[in-house]
Amino acid sequence: MRRLVAVLLVASLAAACSNGGGIEVELGEPGDAGSTTTGQVGVGGGEGQQPPPKPAGDEDDGSSGSPGAFARTLLRPEPATTVVFELFQQAGAEPRSGSVDHAKSVLRSVVHKSVAEPSPIEVPGGAQQWTPAAIRETADRLTKAGQGGGRAVLHVLFLRGSLQGNDEVLGVAVRGDVLAIFSDSVAAAGTPLVSGRAIEDAVLMHELGHLLGLVDLALDTGRDDPDHPGHSRNPESVMYWAVESSLVTQVLSGGPPRDFDRQDLADLAALRDGA
Q1: Is residue 2 assigned to a domain?
Q2: Is 32 helix (H, G, I), strand (E, B) or coil?
C-alpha cells in the first residue's frame, strides 16, 4: 500500500502544465521528513495541527494520516458504523444543496452504512490564501463531532479565497478526514457552457474520492495515472486529474464527470471487503 503524505506546494500551475499538467508538490514518507517525490496537490497531507483526541481503541483509525489512510475505517463495517458528513462553510461560500445531497447519496451507497449530516458550521473571516495546515487547524478548532465511538467523521470545508494564492486549484484533500473546496475559484472556472454548479458537484466528489482512497492511495492497483499520481487515467471518471483544476473546462468537453467509474467502484468494494 502506498500512502502519500506531507504536502507542500512548490510550483505554480503554469509551470506544472509544461510538464503534462497538474501541480507539483513535495510528498514525504511517514517518519521521513527528508524524502520527497512528485504528486498532486489534491492528495496532500502532512504536518500541522493535530486532530482532537480519539476515544481509547480508536487511535489507529487513519483519520490523522494522509488522504486515503482513513479509507478502510470509512468503508469497512467496523469499527465505525456511522459516517458523519460535517460541513463547514464561510459566508459567501455555501455549497449548493444539490452538490451536498449527491455527495452524501454516493457516500452512503459505497460505505453501506448510515451517513449523518449535522447542521453546517460557520467559518469566520473572509477570503484568504489558505495553507493545508490552516485548513486542518480550522476543521479541528471548529469541529463538533469527535472521531471514534462508532463514528467516522469527514470534515468538508467550503472556503473563500484560494490554496496558497493559486486560483487554479479548485479543491484539495489535506488529511485522511479533511477536504476543502475553494468556492471563489470554482465559480470563476465556470463558463457559459459549463456552470460553476456542475464544477462544484464534480470537485466535491473528486476530493471525497481521495478520502475514500482513490486512486491507489489506499489500494495499490497500479492503475493511477503516472503523470498525475492519485488520479484516474479515465476522463469519464470524477477522479480524472483535471477535475480539481481550473483547466477542467479546457481539458474535458461537455463538462466534468461527477461520479466514480466502474474501476473506482471496484476498488472501493475491494477495500470494503477487506483488501
Answers
A1: no
A2: strand
CB-based contacts of 184: which residues, under 8 Å, 6+ apart?
Answer: 93, 127, 160, 161, 162, 167
Assign 112 to helix, strand or coil: coil
Domains of the chain: total:
1
The dihedral over CA atoms of 208, 210, 214, 217, expressed in degrees to the nearest 10, equals -150
| Cell 471525497, residue located | 208
Amino acid at 24: E
Dihedral sign computed on CA atoms, order 214, 237, 26, 156: negative
By C-alpha distance, which of 59, 14, 8, 71 is closest to 35? 8
pLDDT digits (tens, 9 = 90+) for 220-272: 999 999 999 999 999 999 999 999 999 999 998 888 999 999 999 999 999 99
Phi and psi for 158 in degrees, rounded to 5?
A: -110, 115
Determine the Cα–Cα distance for residues 241 and 143; give it in Å rounded to an integer: 29
Residue 91 exposure: Cα atoms within 13 Å on the Cβ side: 3
β-pairing, 114-116 vs 82-90, is parallel
Range of the domain at 135: 7-272
pTM beyond 0.70: yes
Asked whether residue 162 is assigned to any structural domain, the reply reads: yes
Task: Flag whether 64 is in a domain.
Answer: yes
C-beta atoms surrounding 17 within 10 Å: 15
Report the relative pairing of strands 161-163 and 82-90 from DSSP bridges. Answer: unpaired
> Does residue 1 fall inside a structural domain?
no
Residue 10 has pLDDT above 50, yes or no: no
Cα 73 to Cα 64, 150, 212, distances in angstroms: 12, 10, 9
| CATH value at residue 266 | 3.40.390.10
pLDDT tens digits, residue range 48-103? 445 566 655 555 799 999 999 999 999 999 999 999 999 999 999 999 999 999 99
